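Usage example:
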Amino acid sequence: MSRTDDILFRPHRLGALDLKNRIAMAPMTRSRAAQPGNVATELTATYYAQRSGAGLLISEGTQVSPVGQGYAFTPGIHSAEQTAGWRRVTEAVHASGGRIFAQLWHVGRVSHPLLHGQQPVAPSAVAAAGAKAFVVDGGGIGMVDTPTPRALTTDEVRGVVEEFAQAARNARDAGFDGVELHAANGYLIEQFLRSESNRRDDAYGGSVDNRLRFLAEVTEAVAGVFGADKVGVRISPFLELNGIHDDDPHGLFLAVARLLDGLGVAYIHTSESSPMELPPGHDPVPAGFRTALREAYRGTIMVAGGYDGARARAILESGLADMVAFGRPYISNPDLDARLAAGLPLTEPDRATFYGGGAQGYTDYPPLTQAAE
Ligand code: FNR
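Running the assembly step on the lines above writes:
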């Protein structure tokens, strides 16, 4: 099949941007930021530039504040030094013909004082059952249980909205093409959305409308910097990661979709499965949600989680998604777009080098297509 006939390679208008194909690189934490300061490096720039054949790259989660960090060595986007680090990345990606959004991240209760010296913050003082933070302690590094967080005051919630706005200004100054809000996987924004973690009795808790308020304000704040047509929002309605739970995810996330439709964001990105293998043919999204999402939301729908070329083409052909994001395949196949186009085999990633370290398992996976062409 030539690229012209292949639905994966049909150009796509994403909000304000014209993309060369329907392929995104999913956001992936790689925990290699320079210390001290959690700064993206020249190696980070090389890594993303190598993958710029994707229509859109989405950066690893980048914390909007010190207390918003949950894992050691993740790059931030709140200091001048961090902003300068990210500028190297966007320049390298643009020079390679790519586009890149920053994934703005606040982990909320999935954190630990060993990372920043503070008690983690959340909508309510409810610990995340089973959640772990990744910390450096003395000479050692490892996963630790996350403690009970402190509930943010109403004024502090507004302060966190402003931290997201400042992070968006930094992302703009760093040359990013837009931002993706990390409202998935049990982190702060999702902690506000879901009833299990949000027990507030002010304007940010209680009814679904109130639980949506924080997401609405953060989205409006970053849209005020970039324009809503350069903002995406990542959700994971049917994953219960980091202790998160809600009795009615279907209803809740359709309300989220209607909210984001009204705000005019460029895309909704649904993270459909955690990084584990799916049984063949199994769709992790309940029947009916995909069509309901399409009806509730008029922008681009991006999906991620266990996709290969065949599943990606099938969901695009069905009309229930417009773009597909690939995670692990992009770790070990920097030229994934070219391999998918040519039907070449994919290299399996080495899990041992997912998080931390240097170039090994990061920038040293060779492209296949150079040799094959
Ligand atoms: C992830 N994922 C992820 N998601 C996210 O929203 N922000 C992040 O920072 C990360 N970090 C991350 C690190 C690593 C090493 C992996 C493997 C995954 C989830 C990722 O974006 C994607 O949804 C899953 O990997 C499932 O897609 P694949 O890998 O099956 O294509």
